Amino acid sequence: MGILRARIWVLLDDCPPKYKNLFTRYFDPHDLVFVSFPGSGNAATSKAQIECLLEQNDAPYVYLAEDDYFYLPKQFEQMLRFLNAEPEAHFISPYDHPDYYSLGLHDHPVRSIVCDKKYWRQSSTTCFTFSTTRAILRKTAPMFYTLSQRNYDNSIWMSLNKYPLLKPSILFRTLFGPGHLWKSVIKAWLFGWRQICFGTRWKLWTPVPTIATHMEKSGLAPGVDWPPILKEAIAHVNDPLNRKG
Known about the structure:
By secondary structure, the chain is of the alpha/beta class. Helix content is 38%, strand content 18%. The protein has one domain (60-238).
């Protein structure tokens, strides 16, 4: 996390003790709050994550993190600087998703901003790893809570930024193009019609090049030579003192 200091809520859902040890190895134990679940699943832990962040008074900025991301070093603080500098940066994801370059949903001109020598593009959807302010999270929490009703994360983002739901040409490509996104569009309207019709249009931004990647082979962020970076990171985890021979 570079120069940043943070209070971290660690939600362990039926995890072995070594998971807790992994956090205490890399973070100050005084900054950690462990919350255990008996195998409750993603929907329950996602809701609990939001509740923890809304109840805290440590900081006005919050970050929700899934457990299968890899972060490039010394870049995390760029998200906070952009969030603080840009009034229309309502939500920020660290992940330049490969879907942005392959699905019709994202095939449209996008607005971009340069901040701290990093390009940020306005995006339509992302996953459940993102940064925002506590105030905005409080206003949008009801939409995120629909995950417990089997809503999709990309459907939630469609509802929040209303894209492509109010753009007929893009909506057609989304409904009938690759990726089976017609289900996501239906769920966006089913769970979010009030937000779409009457709510604020919230803006989501993602970095180019990426700050982090999803740890899935088919979902690696483009523009980065990941194999040597991941190999070096694994070596450091296995030998944190970087001993030779």
